[in-house]
Amino acid sequence: MSAVLQPLEARFDDMSVERLPAVCAIEKQAYTHPWTHANFIDSMAAGYRCQLLMGGETVIGYFVAMKGVDEVHLLNITVAPEFQRQGWALLMLEALAGWSRGQKAQWLWLEVRVSNARALHIYEHHGFRRVGVRKGYYPAFGGREDAVVMSLRLDEPTSAWGGLTA
User: Fold this and answer.
1) Structure confidence by residue, pLDDT tens digits, 118-137
2) Hey, what domains does the chain have and what are their CATH numbers?
3) Is residue 138 annotated as a catalytic residue, yes or no?
4) Which of 12, 52, 147, 160 is 20 to 30 A (C-alpha) from 92?
């Protein structure tokens, strides 16, 4: 049975060292090649946008994004397995897009494994376009896996995003 929370019960908090054990536990459940504790520490130390989606004291999901001059690069977005397929990833993407627009970013970029059909569908459904492939980008059992590079133009309203603004 999966846990279900209502959207009004959720809130965003800054990622913190104190919450990293929960984040790393989710990361290990969600991925075959998870980010390490050090990856998250480095991201926070670098000043990246590191947000937790919380339901009470429970970490529902999180994202890590790096701001550039006129773009934001989504480095990691994860929903805890027990909260998947409930719209939380979309909520986090919308929050990130809104924040990115507020930062005057024109583009939101990401990479996704070529084998991650569910994520590809979500991103494409919400306006991201495939713009390239990074060969051997991700570690995989028995070798490396390609990544699809995707982008979303933030300074043009799209029907999929409802023209969200910051």
Assistant:
1) 999 999 988 999 999 999 99
2) 8-153 (3.40.630.30)
3) no
4) 147
